[in-house]
């Protein structure tokens, strides 16, 4: 099946009747554990072509007709994150199917390939390519397989080809526009590639230029879109190089986030994406320069965010959502989405990136603190 056909098939299947969905449903008598239930939901929401059902609205009882290539690649990233901490062949098999789908959707560019469905690359996404690259690298690290070696090389080469003179990256081909999201995603992908293949001079040079660009740019103008991906990349660069610049940058970004970008917990939002970045900052604060005050602030904030976020996970047998102010949404189909995370307390829908970020955050939280709140 061609790339365009693959993409259209995913959109058609995602709008199919709920009765035909192959969702994983946990036993109603046993409350699911957050991490395992979220991973099972993502695996169960995978389509035959390797992509994932995108979003289900519990108010309308329908799947959304929208889709997003970066979030599709993000679902693979979450499965790869899970595999980094848990040996699970079912998850590994699902990740292989996803990677084959991403490979089928990749088009030639810059001596490599970018994820996109149109021959002219008009819909290609640098961020999606970066997340596919990270997922392939982590599958290789977790299993020792090299089945996606060609894709790893191609995706890395295409990302390098997108680098601009200032060290940042074009968000898509043939333009000079950058995105804080894709800059962070690409930084993380190239950092992980460089750790695995340090002899690749092109990637090493591109990564060095990105280091200098992002440490300067986002220190001057912090950005919520860059924060979580950028901090995960920073943690990786600090762990690999021991360079104090990365530790200083991460701690500075964390303080800016806590003091200015998001000084308070939003009680209605799904903030798992932010927790990913906060956990990276916490790891550096705890092991880096001994900033105990910041470490304690981060620990408290992460705990508060995750306690709230975990209440957004749908449980086995659940049939209603408390919307607050005495309002409840009764939806019998909730039970078929056990393990999924809602987009927010005021947004009774389940989209793949909500579960993606929460699975990643929960895995990394449990690794840092040995338990969940």
- Number-wise, the strands total 7
Structural class: mainly alpha
**Looking across the biggest beta sheet, what order are the strands in?**
2-1-7
The best one-word shape is globular
Q: What can you tell me about this protein's structure?
A:
- This protein is mostly helical and 373 residues long.
- 57% of the residues lie in helices and 7% in strands.
- It has 13 helices and seven strands.
- A three-stranded antiparallel β-sheet has the order 2-1-7. A two-stranded antiparallel sheet has the order 3-4. It has a two-stranded antiparallel ribbon with strand order 5-6.
- Helix 3 runs parallel beside helix 13 and helix 9 packs parallel to helix 11.
- About 8% of the residues have low confidence.
Summarize the SSE layout with pairings.
Layout (H helix, E strand, L loop, with lengths): L2 H12 L19 H11 L10 E3 L4 E2 L5 H17 L3 H16 L1 E4 L2 E4 L10 H18 L5 H13 L18 H17 L4 H20 L3 H18 L2 H18 L10 H16 L4 H19 L9 E5 L2 E4 L18 E3 H18 L4
Antiparallel strand pairs: 1-2, 1-7, 3-4, 5-6
Helix pairs in contact: 2-3, 2-13, 3-4, 3-5, 3-13, 4-5, 5-6, 5-7, 7-8, 7-9, 9-10, 9-11, 10-11, 11-12, 11-13, 12-13
Describe, in short, the structure shown.
This protein is mainly alpha-helical and 373 residues long. Helices cover 57% and strands 7% of the residues.
């Amino acid at each position: 099946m061609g790339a365009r056909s693959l993409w259209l098939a995913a959109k058609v299947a995602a709008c199919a009747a709920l009765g035909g969905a192959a969702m994983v449903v946990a036993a109603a008598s046993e409350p699911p554990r957050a991490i395992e239930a979220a991973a099972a939901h993502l695996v169960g929401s995978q389509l035959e072509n390797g992509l994932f059902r995108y979003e289900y609205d519990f108010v309308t009882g329908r799947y959304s007709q929208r889709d997003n290539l970066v979030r599709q690649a993000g679902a693979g990233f979450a499965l790869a994150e899970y595999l980094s901490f848990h040996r699970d062949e079912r998850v590994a098999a699902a990740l292989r199917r996803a990677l084959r789908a991403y490979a089928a959707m990749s088009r030639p560019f810059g001596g490599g390939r970018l994820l996109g469905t149109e021959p002219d690359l008009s819909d290609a996404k640098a961020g999606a390519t970066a997340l596919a690259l990270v997922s392939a690298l982590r599958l290789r690290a977790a299993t020792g397989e090299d089945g996606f070696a060609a894709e790893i090389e191609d995706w890395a080469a295409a990302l390098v080809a997108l680098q601009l003179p200032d060290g940042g990256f074009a968000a898509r081909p043939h333009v000079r526009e950058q995105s804080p999201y894709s800059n962070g995603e690409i930084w993380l992908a190239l950092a992980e590639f460089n750790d695995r293949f340090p002899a690749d001079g092109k990637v090493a040079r591109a990564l060095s230029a990105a280091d200098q660009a992002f440490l300067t740019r986002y220190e001057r103008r912090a950005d919520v879109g860059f924060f979580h991906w950028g901090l995960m990349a920073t943690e990786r660069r600090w762990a690999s190089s021991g360079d104090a610049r990365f530790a200083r940058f991460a701690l500075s970004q964390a303080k800016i986030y806590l003091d200015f970008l998001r000084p308070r917990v939003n009680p209605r939002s799904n903030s798992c994406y932010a927790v990913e970045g906060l956990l990276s900052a916490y790891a550096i604060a705890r092991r880096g320069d001994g900033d105990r005050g910041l470490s304690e602030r981060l620990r408290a904030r992460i705990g508060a965010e995750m306690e709230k976020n975990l209440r957004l996970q749908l449980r086995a047998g659940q049939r209603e959502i408390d919307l607050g102010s005495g309002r409840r949404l009764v939806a019998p189909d909730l039970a078929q989405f056990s393990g999924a995370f809602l987009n927010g307390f005021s947004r009774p829908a389940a989209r793949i990136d909500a579960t993606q970020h929460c699975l990643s955050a929960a895995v990394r939280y449990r690794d840092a603190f040995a338990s969940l709140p």
